[in-house]
Design brief:
The chain is of the alpha+beta class and about 325 residues long. The chain has 15 helices and eleven strands. This is Helix-turn-helix domain-containing protein.
């Protein structure tokens, strides 16, 4: 959902429109623009994924301050985990100061005062997650604020968030959007627990979240035809027996997980503008299938229609909306 595009707002009204959009997407705060009002530029989107939401901002230089007075106002208890897609940001909360740039993540507890600014403008991408969904004590969340980089899960979560935020509107239109939001929130929860818990608890956290991390990894590697149980196990430092037992204990099949995700990806691609012009074999290869005949057989078994028929007759409503 587009919250704000200042190109459609009179210059004199842009600062107020920015403040209102920021309050709608997040929570009330003081906005400090670092350019004259007539030069304020911003484009904001808010895309729900179940109980979580992706919030993106591309803007001219600005600063945000959430004061103790703001915090005392009624509002939902949420966290934001964010990164800079362009430029850098200066962040301060709970006696922690951080320059956010490159591969850095920042964790903001919106139930506490904080300050954030982009002195030269840029692009910010964040996932908003309710405290209730995280099911973590506030002190655990706040202990993690300055320590995200210390967690071995930091890179995995950063990569996952970049994919989710970059394709938010497309993913939100998919039937799996609710499950994706829940899985992403679980990854964020694991990162917070890992960062807050210190060395003693990291092994337990990694074990507890192994299934989520494996499923996320599989989703990121679907297009690789060399993705096998052996490569998945090696990437997570477990044996094949442990990997199969992990899925079996959860009532899942690793093979069906991979095949099912690849088929869903192919199903969406076949009815996209590009996919309609591409051969069935090319789409199969793009989704990690090495044998077009095998792909066609599995597709028909799953959906009761051949890939070619689906490509030609599927409703346009399944196309990405952006």
């Amino acid at each position: 959902m587009l919250l704000l595009d200042t190109r459609t707002v009179p210059r004199a009204d842009r600062a107020e429109a920015f403040r209102a959009a920021m309050a709608e997407a997040s929570l009330p705060c003081r906005v400090e623009h670092r350019t004259p009002t007539e030069r304020v530029r911003a484009r904001m989107h808010l895309v729900p994924l179940g109980r979580t939401a992706v919030f993106t901002t591309d803007a001219s230089p600005f600063g945000l301050v959430r004061t103790p007075r703001h915090v005392q106002q009624d509002g939902p208890a949420v966290i934001a985990i964010a990164y800079q897609a362009r430029g850098s940001g200066e962040y301060a909360q709970l006696n922690h100061e951080q320059l956010v740039q490159g591969r850095d993540l920042m964790l903001v507890d919106l139930t506490a005062p904080y300050a954030f600014g982009c002195s030269v403008g840029g692009g910010s991408r964040s996932l908003m997650v309710p405290h209730e969904q995280l099911a973590l004590p506030v002190d655990v969340i706040r202990r993690a604020v300055p320590r995200l980089r210390a967690s071995p899960l930091h890179g995995l979560v950063r990569t996952h968030l970049e994919e989710v935020c970059g394709r938010a509107e497309e993913l939100a239109a998919d039937a799996g959007a609710l499950a994706l939001g829940s899985a992403t929130a679980e990854l964020v929860r694991a990162l917070i627990v890992s960062a807050a818990g210190g060395e003693r608890n990291r092994g337990a956290v990694r074990e507890e979240t192994l299934l989520t991390r494996v499923r996320t990894y599989v989703g990121q590697q679907l297009t690789d035809p060399a993705l096998t149980p052996a490569t998945i196990a090696a990437a997570h430092n477990v044996s094949l027996r442990q990997l199969y037992r992990l899925f079996s204990d959860a009532g899942l099949s690793l093979e069906q997980e991979v095949i099912g995700l690849r088929l869903e990806q192919a199903r969406a691609q076949l009815v996209s503008p590009t996919g309609r012009r591409r051969s069935i074999a090319a789409t199969a290869r793009a989704c990690g299938f090495t044998d077009a005949s095998h792909f066609t057989r599995r597709f028909r078994q799953a959906y009761g229609i051949s890939p070619r028929d689906w490509q030609g007759t599927a409703p346009t409503s399944v196309d990405p909306v952006w």
